[in-house]
Amino acid sequence: MFEQWINGFLVYISDEKNLKRSSAEAYISDIRAFQEYLHSLRLNEPVEVNDTEVIRYILSLQRSKKNSSTIARHLSSIRCFFQYLRDEGVVKTDPTKNLKPPRKERRCPSVLTKGQMMNLMDMPSDKSEKGARDKAILGLMYGTGLRVSEIIGLKIKDVDIKGRSVNTKDRLVPVEQELLESLKRYIEEYRRDEEPGSPLFTNSRGNNLTRQGLWKIVKSYSRTTNPQSIRNSFAVHMLSNGEQPGRVGQLLGHSDPSSIHALTELVDSAQRDSGGRA
User: Of the residues 42, 72, 87, which one is the last residue of a structural domain?
Assistant: First the structure.
């Protein structure tokens, strides 16, 4: 009987739901895998299936090392199948009604060690305009945790040398002395004749630096590093040095209190990944 209803389900999702062939085949593949599992339990009728069997099947997928996305897809396919069976009057209840897919695994954030960050920032030579610009950009990323959009949006006037800060549209961010010297040298040597309202960083043609352009700059020094990993490193290293999560959240521009919890998880996972050498 299962086979009969699987065939009917295929017609339903193909003709009535207008699913692409590849999507329909994926649904059917998941249902057939579930059918085989039920057959091993000697269950051959849809009405014999309850939530316990579905839960056990999900657990079997977990034991076989299926990732959470794959398991969630299987559950979604089974749910859709039983909703179809309920609409057809084959079953009275949907055994997946109160079941939730497993949480997706959280990827360990990409974080550089302090040594790796120092090496990265030492790569550009400030003997040329490009090198001085790149050194200032990398320093700003790691020294302030600014977002890409904030860095490319900075104007020359936003750098307050006396106030030892950088002013974004949303907040005033303190700058350490070494980074401040790098910014001061770059502005005095290469941006001295520009208007205060001009972009702080430009490309080789003198135009505004774009998001893609900034990513390319970082990638030119390290193919395995990107702006987000540098921002992560800023947060992790500050937290590792004992800074309060709330303060780090403020510096990163987070307004959502839940982001503070995410930051503490960030440093914990990074320290586990690096053996405590964040």
Answer: 87
